[in-house]
Amino acid sequence: MSRITVIGGTGYAGSAIVAEAAARGHQVTALSRSLPDAPIPNVTYVQGDATDAATLSAPIEGADVVVGALAPRGPLAGAFRDVYGTIARLADAAGVPLYVVGGYSSLRPARGADRFVADLSHVPAELHDEIRAGAALVIEDLPATPATLDWVFVSPALRFGAHMPGERLGRYRLGDDIAVQPEDGGAISAADYALGFVDLIEKGDHHRAQVNLGH
User: Fold this and answer.
1) Containing domain of residue 121, as a range?
2) What pLDDT digit, counting tens, does each position of 66-93 carry?
3) 112 — alpha (psi -120 to 50), left (phi > 0) or beta?
4) How many domains does the chain have?
5) Is the N or the C terminus of the chain less surrounded, counting Cβ atoms within 10 Å?
6) Model-level pTM greater than 0.70?
7) Domain harbouring 125, CATH code
């Protein structure tokens, strides 16, 4: 089993990944600003600020796999890309792969087409900055990291979030940077996203690549 550190391990996606990985017997450490009300058994929780490199250092150095499950909003609104820059640097130095919880807008509707983020005219203006920041990770930042850093950027289906939690179906479909075409509206629950996410970690078939998970 692997030692998996989840940065942002009490958020919507992060907590589901923590639960799935722990259920499979992995040794999981969850780093977040606040501790959960209902801790998952056999998970080590570390309370700390992800903008502090010293806070990130030990959980990353002690891991076999690092998961970034941070959102480009709230306290991280202006520091999101810089924080991931630090995470990437530390993961590279530790020689461990980095798996990132991505967003839908960085995907493409078809081969050779522009990414969805290129046209946000249908999205409320107050969400534009966080969508662009999230997409910039896989468009600019991760590809610019040293070739020694192994990363995988895992985008969910369009309707993904605490506002549309969905139910665990025990299945998912895997695509690359082309959005999996929805069969039931394009949603995927956190539990099924985590199922696919941990499968990706365990199989280790993707390297410096973007993939997406949907029903």
Assistant:
1) 3-214
2) 999 999 999 999 999 999 999 999 999 9
3) left
4) 1
5) N
6) yes
7) 3.40.50.720
